[in-house]
Structures are given as structure tokens and as C-alpha cells.
Amino acid sequence: MLWNCREAGNKIFCRNFKEIIRTHRLDVVALFETKVLFSSMGLFFNNLGYTASTVVDPVGRVGGIWLIWNPTQVSVNVIVANQQVIQATIQRKDYEDWVLAAVYASPNLILRQALWEDLEDTTKSMSKPWLIAGDFNEIGGQHERRSFSQSTHQNRSRNFNESINKCGLMDLGCIGPKFTWTNNRKGMANTMERLDRALCNEDWRTMYPQGIIRNLPRTYSDHSPLIIYTEGFLYTSIKLSKVIRLCTFHTQDLQVGLSSRRVHFVWSFSALSQEEIEYANTKIENWLFGGA
């Protein structure tokens, strides 16, 4: 998971973080804009199983990137750590090594350009599957913005897309909320944008062809948490048998469905988005009809 949590050192963050971990059982977590020193939160994370970490603490209350992981599930070897990115090799038994770049791109345009210059240099020597994800503080175009005010940053969006192309990266898209950030203003003053995303090179996509990015609803922060499922959402977060237990079958609908090779469900698991419901419907149909 990658999350611009906008301050990690309070009870509300702890409650929300515990709930996310309880639900999704994550092995590696990157937190951005932590605003507090990691030493004040180390015991909290240790008690949740995240006993290994690499951190770049904030300067005063500005910035901060924490990369934490459960060493019983995954090995992480850090390559680069600075105020805008922590880059590390991810190692898991029976899987090929790959590289994660957890990005918190600076709101400062000049610093953000320097980050992309560094990423372009990295591209030249990158020989492993590579995933770059986090808060890029930029949108790819007007379609990634919803606001009553007109955007004046078309050139920035064009430069952002050019940087992605120069690095040979592809956008993995997402399921869940499209816009990952809001200014939290009401009515016509509200703006929502897709500032957070995951990008990868061709090797990473080839290694994980069913990899999915899920944006969770915003709760504590004005940013959505991003969860990366390398093997696909249904098989890592909610097993097929669990999905079946979480829905109610209507007998008549099921009989009609069986004869017409369609199944109709009434879902009682409100945490699933519409896209996830449709995806699960398809998977359950394939399971019932042997992939027909």
C-alpha cells in the first residue's frame, strides 16, 4: 500500500491504519507526508508486524517517506532513499525480484522536475521489473480533474506524460474511486484530482499480468490509499469462497441464471465497488460453469 496520510502521529491515523491492515493484510507499506518522526511511531508499527523499515523523516513538519514491511513475508533491500523517493528491491520466495519506487513528488515544480530527471537516469540502467507508485502531485490531463474552476496547468500535464514516456512506463489504471485527492471544499469550490497512481515498465507488467491497483475511499486523509495486488484483486484480498459467503442468493434468480448461463446476485458487502462487483460476478459465473 502507498498512502499520502497527511500526518501519522495521532489516534485517528492509528485507528484508520489498523482497520486497513486488518482488512487487507499488507506486506509492504509506504507512507508519505508523515509530518512526525518515525521514532514516535516505531512501536505502533512493530506491534502490527512491521518490524523492518527505511525512513526519510520530514524536515520540520514538511514531507517524510516511511517504507515499512513484514520481514517474515518479504525481503526489502533499499537502493535509494531521499525526500522524494525510496527505491528498493522486493524479494519473495518463488518470485523474481523486482524494484519498487515509492514516490512522494514535491509540490515544488523544480524539485519535481529533478525527481523525474533522476528516474530517467535510473531507466537507463534498470534491468529488473520496475514499479513506480505513490503521490506524483500531477495529473495526466483534464480528464483526471473534476472542478468548476478551469485548470491552467496543461503544459505541466503534457510534461508529466512526456516524462512517463521517456521512462518507458505504463499507467496501471485503477479500480475504486477515480480521483485520489480532494481539496475538501464544499460545493462549487470543490476540486478532485487523480494525483496518486502506479506506473510500471514492460517487465513488471509481464511478470504480473493480473496486477491490479485498488484505490480505497478517502477517510482520514485527503488522499486515497493505493493498494497493489500483484496477483489480481479477487485472489489476494477476497478469496472466491469468501465472496460467495458475502452475497445472498435468491433461489428463483439462481435457477433462471443457471438455465440462461447468467447468475444474478444480491450483494451484501458494501465495501466492494461496482467494478469489483462486476468482476466478481464474472469470476463466479466462470467457476459455476467451468469457465464456459
Distance from first to last alpha carbon: 35 Å
Report the CATH superfamily of the largest domain.
Endonuclease/exonuclease/phosphatase
Strand content: 15-25%
Mass-distribution shape: globular
- Decide which structural class fits the backbone: alpha+beta
CATH architecture of the largest domain: 4-Layer Sandwich
Number of domains: 2
Name the CATH class of the largest domain.
Alpha Beta
The pLDDT mean sits at 85
What's the CATH topology name of the largest domain?
Deoxyribonuclease I, Chain A
| Strand order within the widest beta sheet | 5-6-7-8-13-10
Give helix and strand order, one letter per element, not per position.
EHEHEEEEEHEEHEEEEHEEHHEHEH
Describe this entry's structure for a reader:
The chain starts with a strand and ends with a helix. With 292 residues, the protein is an alpha+beta fold. A hairpin with an 8-residue loop joins β3 and β4 (65-69). The protein is built from 9 helices and 17 strands. The radius of gyration is 20 Å and the shape is globular. The chain folds into 2 domains: 2-236, Deoxyribonuclease I, Chain A, CATH 3.60.10.10; 240-288, no CATH class. Residues 235-271 have low confidence and may be disordered. The strands form 5 sheets. The protein has a 6-stranded mixed beta sheet. The chain has a 4-stranded mixed beta sheet with strand order 1-2-4-3, with no helix packed on it.
